[in-house]
Each structure stands twice: as C-alpha cells, then as structure tokens.
Amino acid sequence: MADKKSLKEQVYAAVIRDVISGEYPPNAILSEKQLIERFSVSKSPVRDALIELCNEGVLRSIPRFGYEVVAYTEKDVREIIEFRGVLESHCLRQCAGSLTAADFERLDQFLVQSEQLAHSEQEIVAHWENNVSFHLLLCSLAQNEYIYKELERSMNVQLRAYAQFHWDRWHKTAIILDVDTHKMIVRALARRDLEEALRVLRQDLGLWNESGSPARF
C-alpha cells in the first residue's frame, strides 16, 4: 500500500507480531533506522508507528538510544486479570436481566464456531483471538463502548505478557481450545442465574483467592 497511514499500520502490525512471536524479546532495542531498512519505507510512517507503540505500552522510548520492548512481570498479569474481572463482572450485571433471544442466538452461533476451532490445530494466537472475541461479545451486550475498548486493550496487553512468559512452550505444543466455561457462562445467563455466570467467569479468568474460592467483584 502506498499511502502513509497504511504504511504506518504495516509497520505497527509487524512489530506487534514480532513481539508476540518472540522475534523481539523483552528489553530488546529497536531503532528507527533498523525498521526503515527492514520495511524499505521513509522515516515518517516508522516514527508514527513507534509513537503509537509507545503510547500503547508495547515499547518504551529511550532518548538518543532507541525503543525498548517493554517487559511484563507476573504482577502485571495478575493486575490485568483483576481489572478484567471488575470490567466483565460489571458488564454481566448490567446485561443479565435484559438479554434477548437475538442476543442468545449470537452467543450460540459464536460457541458453534468456537467448537470447530477447538478441534483444529491452530496457532496459540488464533485460539487467543477466539477467546478475546467471546469476552468482547459478552462485554458488548452491556452497551458500554468505553469498557469495551478498555477490555480489548487489556486483553491485547495480556497476550503480549503471556507470550513473553510462555512462548517457547506454546510454540511447541498443539493447543486445544477449551470452550466449556464459555458454554457454562451462556447457559447460566439463559437460566437468568447471574451468580452462577459470575462464578464461572471468575473461574475462566483464573480469579481465585488464597482459600481456593472464587474472588468476589
């Protein structure tokens, strides 16, 4: 593509992909010159992509040195999951009593597609994207665009953090997507059992307290 915006998007997407794949590991240093040569583009789209990557917390600008790939800690991941728990629990409470037959049809259709993906040997990123789509679909039913965007951003950060911790294992393992908890959430909502839907959501997110009981939000 020839226009400046699309070139920026190409550079942005390529850097994200390489961070997730481990091509650019945590604390790796990128430079404008390196990316300009790699993509055979001018400085402007590369600089715009780097600015956006810094704004999103993927990179950190180090003046007169380059751009460092942000390293995540296990504490970062725990905080992201806790944040997701607050957002998604709120969304379920907001929409649980007003879901329509059309809403459940959308959810059921998505679960059918998930089942098909679960029995295929896809890369981990494809399975994660399916997981993201389910949680964003649930969130969208609350009709709060700000929460939707924050949840999407949080899950993108979570993917990058997981990739840093676990990419070697993911890359060598055939991942089978478990959609059982997603089904259980939808079934609980269909029964208008909000507490059960919240319990399974917390289980799906891995939100458990030290006693082994689900964390409360």
Description:
This is DNA-binding GntR family transcriptional regulator. Residues 5-72 form the HTH gntR-type domain. Keywords: DNA-binding, Transcription, Transcription regulation. There is one protein chain. The protein has 217 residues and is mainly α. It has two domains: 4-69, Arc Repressor Mutant, subunit A (Orthogonal Bundle); 74-205, Four Helix Bundle (Hemerythrin (Met), subunit A). Helix content is 67%, strand content 5%. Strands 1-3-2 form a three-stranded antiparallel beta sheet. Helix 1 packs across helix 3 (43-55), helix 5 packs antiparallel against helix 8 and helix 8 (180-190) runs antiparallel to helix 9. The longest helix has 27 residues, at 145-171. It is elongated. The termini are far apart.
Highlighted features:
Four Helix Bundle (Hemerythrin (Met), subunit A), 217 residues, Tscrpt_reg_HTH_GntR, disordered C terminus, 5% strand, three-stranded antiparallel β-sheet, transcription regulation, transcription, mainly alpha, single chain, Arc Repressor Mutant, subunit A, WH-like_DNA-bd_sf
Kindly summarize this structure in a few lines.
With 217 residues, the protein is mostly helical. The protein has two domains: 66 residues, Arc Repressor Mutant, subunit A; 132 residues, Up-down Bundle (Four Helix Bundle (Hemerythrin (Met), subunit A)).
